[in-house]
Specification:
Strand content: 5-15%
CATH superfamily: NAD(P)-binding Rossmann-like Domain
Oligomer: single chain
Largest sheet: 8 strands, mixed
CATH architecture: 3-Layer(aba) Sandwich
Radius of gyration: 18 Å
Distance between the termini: 18 Å
CATH class: Alpha Beta
Number of helices: 10
Strand order of the largest sheet: 3-2-1-4-5-6-7-8
Order of helices and strands: HEHEHEHEHEHEHHHEEH
């Protein structure tokens, strides 16, 4: 069953960087899959994990750009095309990965889009939910035999503080009967990411697969590509001179919690938890809602099960066994 949301006294924190978190941990012989591992915090995630000796397979929607970004980076890194909004390309990616390795030790579902204008995939599904959640749901299902084969795999699902926007409506996940709101759609997708980790851990524990949800922190990356600078200034992310808020993390700092969840010995025997700042998060203080922590709905096991059933139906996939 999912572990309680109890901090584990991590020696790392808000300003820790990914390579610091993995220092002293030998990942030689391990195979790691990272989606979107060539942009923003994904690049630093790959840098840290490959630098620790792992073989890293990067799923890339823009493989040419991935080649440019990752060229010359130390380590065993392979790039395979992947578009999380296209079910056929997800299956093709998984098939190619299965042809390249017998096991996956770590899967980091890192790729995402944020606050995008209303768009739909070929199935008519709202694009943020389809890409951020359903695409990773299908991918994880297709890679499941490889995750189980290792007997001790970890899956890291990138959620966000945006889960507090909630927006999760299992009767209308595609905004067909309600007005589209780009932030509610993002909140829905990020809530789904956290609930996915909760239920995946429940199902995977007996097979040695544990799952973790991660809030990486506020970071200035291409994730904000759909937002104008005016919008970002209004939210306090940038000042009038174009300087990013001092509370924002660097990409190296933003990648640290993903890497910590993937490798930390402190998380052995644990799973299903929501983490931030290289620690298991606690509940949000309702008197200080701008502080860190999680909102209760992403710890709702009944909601996680309902989302899982809905996701199987929408994606047309189920997990073997």
């Amino acid at each position: 069953m999912p572990s309680p949301q109890t901090p584990v006294n991590s020696p790392f924190g808000y300003r820790s960087i990914a390579r610091e978190v993995v220092e002293g941990i030998d990942l030689s012989g391990k195979t790691v899959v990272v989606t979107g591992g060539y942009s923003g915090i994904g690049t630093e995630t790959v840098h840290a994990i490959a630098g620790a000796g792992a073989r890293v397979i990067v799923g890339a929607r823009r493989p040419e750009q991935a080649d440019e970004v990752l060229e010359g980076m130390d380590g065993d890194i392979e790039i395979i095309p992947l578009d999380l909004s296209d079910p056929a390309l997800i299956d093709a990616f998984a098939e190619e990965v299965a042809g390249a390795t017998d096991t996956i030790d770590i899967l980091i579902n890192n790729a995402a889009i944020m606050a995008s204008p209303l768009a739909r995939d070929a199935r008519g599904y709202e694009m943020q939910f389809a890409t951020n959640h359903l695409g990773h749901f299908q991918l994880t299902a297709r890679l499941w035999p490889l995750l189980v084969a290792g007997g001790g795999a970890r899956v890291v699902a990138l959620s966000s503080i945006g889960h507090r926007l909630h927006g999760l409506d299992l009767d209308d996940p595609n905004f067909e009967n309600r007005e589209y709101d780009k932030w509610l759609a993002y909140g829905q997708a990020k809530s789904a990411n956290a609930l996915f980790a909760l239920q995946l851990d429940t199902l995977g524990e007996a097979k040695g697969v544990r799952a973790f949800a991660v809030h990486p922190g506020g970071i200035a990356t291409p994730l904000q590509r759909h937002l104008t600078m005016e919008e970002q200034r209004a939210m306090g992310w940038y000042d009038e001179e174009g300087n990013v808020h001092e509370a924002f993390k660097s990409t190296e700092e933003g990648a640290s919690t993903s890497v910590w969840c993937a490798v930390s010995p402190l998380l052995e025997g644990k799973g299903g938890v929501y983490c931030e700042d290289c620690e298991v998060a606690v509940a949000t203080d309702p008197e200080n809602p701008r502080a860190g922590g999680y909102w209760p709905h992403i710890r709702d096991e009944a909601l996680a099960r309902a989302l899982w059933t809905k996701s199987e139906e929408m994606a047309g996939v189920s997990f073997p066994g």
